[in-house]
Amino acid sequence: MRREQSTMWSNCSRMGDDELRPSTLYRRHALAVRVTHWVNAVALTLLLMSGLQIFNAHPNLYWGDSSYTGQPPLLQTDGFPSWITVPSNQWLAMGRRWHLFFAWVLVVNGVTYLTYSIASRHLSRDLGITSTDWRSIGRSFAEHLRLHRPHGDEARHYNVLQKLTYLAVIFGLLPLMIITGMAMSPGLDSLWPGWVDVLGGRQSARTLHFITAWLLVLFAMIHVFEVLVTGFWNNLRSMITGRYRITTGADS
To answer: How many CB atoms lie within 10 A of CB 29?
Structure first.
């Protein structure tokens, strides 16, 4: 993480008395990280909404060959409300077009982010897990439960739970989402016959795709919550301008 810093003073209050404390504004996120972050946010939102449109065409989930053998589905629902789908009215063909387009946006954006992260050493420098990180897992859990807001030098780095979560999303959930999406394509299935069976068949892939989508939604909800409780405007500014303010001796 680059340390382009400028020192300024911010007015803070402690125990009812106003006092001046030094604060540091430094470059937290590079332009490439910020752009790919927002492209991801838009792509994943529209993938979810168009995916729910596709799901509503047959709002049941199966495993293996159960849908062909007459066995009851694992999950049977009435579908999702129209206000959360794209398009809003039931239109399967258009939903698939939206879904495929933003799936490609997600893949290209993901490759761009990963290439940049490896080339710039952002991946190893900011997300690499050290022996010190492993020893701090217990403390990090406790701090998250207490809604602890990092300050000072602590706020310059991701904690171990953040690193583990981001790595799980980057190398776990997102690749699984892409692979299970590909497994539902008859065209790709015919190009390499049998590979879908590794996932348990197309119906199993559809179920895994659905579960993975909601795990990503859960991640997004926790992510937004953490942004809110650790300083919304400071975090938002850092993801728009790249600059993050640290106030010495107080919450950032």
So the answer is: 20
The single-letter code of the amino acid at 135 is R
190 within 8 A of 199, measured Cβ to Cβ? no
**143: nearest Cα among 165, 162, 164, 123:** 162
pTM equals 0.86
Residue spans per domain, the chain: 31-150+157-232
Q: Which of 117, 97, 107, 106 is nearest to 39 (CA)?
A: 106
Task: Residue 163: name the closest of 127, 119, 217, 202 by CA.
Answer: 127
Residue 204 near residue 49 (C-beta atoms within 8 A): no
Q: Which CATH architecture has domain 31-150+157-232?
A: Up-down Bundle (1.20)
Summarize pLDDT for 180-239 with one digit per residue, the tens: 999 998 888 777 888 898 999 889 999 999 999 999 999 999 999 999 998 899 999 999
Token match 């069976």: residue? 197
Coil, strand, or helix at residue 16?
coil
Token couple for 28:
């937290």
182: tokens are 């590909």
Tell me what pLDDT residue 26 has.
82
Q: Is the pLDDT of residue 17 over 80?
A: no
